[in-house]
Design goal:
31% strand, four-stranded mixed sheet, alpha/beta, Ribosomal protein S3 C-terminal domain, GMP Synthetase, Chain A, domain 3, four-stranded antiparallel sheet, globular, 30% helix
Length: 220
């Protein structure tokens, strides 16, 4: 078997953008900021798991930080009268910026079509597996739901682990349409997630192909 490259990592700067956007003036600050970004994403995704978070983008500048959360359930994060945003900002400031003067801004963006986000599809598959729904029914039902969106040209879902409580772990996958992973201009959204079942962890991988992206020609 050949080594598989992460479909998002190989397309950074081509069809995909970085989730962290900032510049570091030294190796120490790079290491510190990068670790803080990873911890911050893990904290948000764990504490607000019910909000169906697709991604957390972080932008830094001098004395300022902007956190953009893309979710399909913005009402869970915003809350009544925007109190949810205030609580989220307060929790981030207390955990990661205690005693520091940082202008922290948290924004929430709605994902209108859940089927176009690989992370949201992976979370949906994991939730059904945790509820002990038969995995074949989960795969087929999710594929039908994603395929109903006409803007999606291909989808593949793969799960691995002790499927159905079997003693031996195995890998199952289903796909529809095409997934051109070797074409760098193809817009392929990829995500990984874990379903924590009573039999152990089941890994979920989702690929969603939404066509090709071409660089727009800028007129002088």
């Amino acid at each position: 078997m050949g080594n598989k490259t992460n479909p998002t990592g190989i397309r950074l700067g081509i069809t995909a953008d970085w989730l962290s956007r900032w510049f570091a003036d030294s190796k120490k600050s790079l290491r510190t900021n990068l670790r803080k970004d990873v911890e911050m994403r893990a904290f948000i995704e764990k504490q607000w798991k019910s909000a169906a978070i697709a991604s957390v983008e972080i932008e830094r500048s001098t004395g300022m930080m902007r956190v953009v959360i893309r979710t399909s359930r913005p009402g869970v994060l915003i809350g009544r009268g925007g109190t949810g945003i205030e609580d989220l900002t307060r929790a981030l400031r207390k955990r990661f910026f205690a005693g520091k003067k940082v202008d922290l801004k948290v924004e929430v963006q709605e994902v209108k079509h859940m089927e176009e986000s690989a992370m949201l599809v992976a979370q949906q598959v994991a939730e059904q597996l945790e509820k002990r729904t038969p995995f074949r029914r989960v795969l087929k039902g999710t594929l039908d739901q994603v395929e109903a969106n006409k803007s999606i040209l291909g989808v593949k879902i793969e799960i691995a682990g002790r499927l159905g409580g079997a003693e031996m772990s195995r890998r199952e996958w289903l796909s529809r349409g095409k997934i051109p992973l070797h074409t760098l201009r193809s817009d392929v959204d990829f995500a990984r997630y874990e379903a924590k079942t009573t039999y152990g962890i089941i890994g979920v991988k989702v690929w969603i192909y939404k066509g090709e992206k071409f660089e727009e020609k800028k007129e002088a």
